[in-house]
TrEMBL record:
This is ABC-2 type transport system ATP-binding protein. Belongs to the ABC transporter superfamily. It comes from Aromatoleum tolulyticum. Keywords: ATP-binding, Cell membrane, Membrane, Nodulation, Nucleotide-binding, Transport. One of its GO terms (molecular function) is ATP hydrolysis activity. PANTHER family: ABC TRANSPORTER ATP-BINDING PROTEIN (PTHR42711), ABC TRANSPORTER ATP-BINDING PROTEIN NATA (PTHR42711:SF5).
Length: 266
């Protein structure tokens, strides 16, 4: 299947309603190459406020490269990336101020306490004093971590460490949350809990871009964007993609599109 499938007509009510407020995250014809290898080839997508979009692709599809561009680690060769209307290349500080990120690899200070990690992150965003303390307390409370606030991060389980990273990403109340293969290494229960916590953010108007190679995580999304070899192959509601591909499930549709690159967790 080489042509990009168009399932815009099947957009969910959540997507249609939030679209009226404008996209929180927009990418237009984004390209990135490393030497002769094209990592991203004309990627165009948007995520509306209050929408959960799964970026589904096998390993090596270009998901991590896309997140590196969105977080300002690298510049795109061409195209436009904008967060809440702020062009990342032209106004990086304004754009990044609206982003919360949980990377695949943990970036917590294991020797600091849970709350101390969040307070340090708050300070990086210009939050201090009572304002920062209130934000940290609120973030920890939402994720059930209040009683662990003073514990060193290294004493936490893998699932709770991920919850701390999510709390940290939300402490400055970003409009857009990026989750880059954030469930890697978690047991099934912890993985489901983290996914449910992020899905609940839609009610607060947070736009979520969730990168994964696991089809069952994508099935919970409002919309799925299939990325393969640096190109978007299809996008739409999970069941709509299966219907258009003529398959019974999203997993089967994904395997058909990518030639067997996806996984379903056990």
């Amino acid at each position: 299947m080489n042509e990009r499938m168009n399932t815009a007509v099947d957009a969910s009510p959540r997507t249609r309603d939030s679209a009226q407020a404008g996209a929180a995250l927009e990418l237009a014809d984004v390209r990135k190459a490393y030497g002769t290898r094209e990592a991203l080839r004309g990627v165009t997508l948007k995520v509306d406020r209050g929408e959960f979009v799964a970026l589904l692709g096998p390993n090596g599809a270009g998901k991590s490269t896309l997140f590196q561009l969105l977080t300002g680690l690298f510049n795109a060769d061409s195209g436009r990336l904008a967060v809440c209307g702020h062009d990342i290349r032209k106004a990086p500080v304004a754009a990044l101020a609206h982003l919360g990120v949980v990377f695949q690899q943990s970036t917590l200070d294991l020797d600091l306490g849970v709350a101390a990690n969040l307070k340090f992150h708050a300070a990086l965003h210009g939050l201090g004093g009572r304002h920062a303390r209130d934000r940290v307390a609120d973030a920890l409370g939402r994720l059930g971590l209040t009683e662990r606030a003073g514990d060193p991060v290294r004493e936490l389980s893998g699932g709770n460490r991920r919850k701390v990273e999510l709390a940290r990403a939300l402490v400055h109340e970003p409009a857009v949350l990026l989750m880059d293969e954030a469930t890697v290494g978690l047991d099934p229960a912890s993985r489901r809990q983290l996914l449910d916590e992020v899905l609940a953010l839609r009610a607060r108007g947070v736009a979520v871009l969730w990168a994964t190679h696991l089809v069952d995580e994508a099935e919970a999304a409002d919309r799925v964007v299939v990325l393969h070899r640096g190109q978007i192959l299809a996008e739409g509601r999970p069941q709509a993609l299966a219907d258009q591909a003529g398959t019974a499930t999203l997993a089967d549709a994904f395997l058909q599109m990518t030639g067997g690159g996806g996984e379903r967790s056990d």
